[in-house]
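Let's inspect a concrete specimen:
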Amino acid sequence: MPINAPIPLEHNGGMPASLLVVEDDDTIRDTIREALILEGYEVTASGNGREALTLVQESAERAPFSLVVLDLMLPGLDGLDLCRQIRQSENSIPILVVSARDSERDRILGLEVGADDYLVKPFGMRELVARCRALLRRSNGGFSQGRVLEHANLRLFTEECRVTRDGQEVNLSPKEYRLLELFMQNPRRVWSRDKLLEQIWGFDYFGDSKTVDVHIRWLREKLETNPSNPEHLLTVRGFGYRFG
């Protein structure tokens, strides 16, 4: 491990976090892999999208990966489809997309299919490592206070990181859960995008603030009877969002 490097986040019962790097360019893949190994992580690498999907599925049954670093241009199965299939299987593993596609549309599309962060090539290894650490820290953290939060037909169990709607379990990603927990702990408080990014994504988040809107939309689709006319998670025009 590099001198004065931060201790790698642990995962799965105290073991070092296990990362999957999916990149078809041999040089880039090896560079990313070596940079993450030097930080103390366990790293598996793949250059094929379909192979990577198999690795994710197999690891979910044994020791799930802690994070996926995912290129979009892949043989076998492209990165967007791979990301979409991971999320359709209700796997909430953090996903960092790395891509040469740098338009706003591409970034939004990546977030909409389930990516947690989006890093445009070319990038520095220090920034990539920082983003990986931030995603791992957020997936391990939270606002739990060991109680049950209730609002209308929603219940949030903080010790179990579990949410029900009308008594039925709701499958939320780690960030969706923490957004909802923050809202339910602060009913009727108006949160700006910047404040939500600070609270949920952290001070070291480098991405687009539009990710907040994307996650709010996902929450509404899972929690609201009519997502286009929400009753719980409301937009306060010109200011941000509030709950209740």
About this structure: The chain has two domains: 10-140, 148-243. Residues 49 and 77 are 4 Å apart (CA to CA).
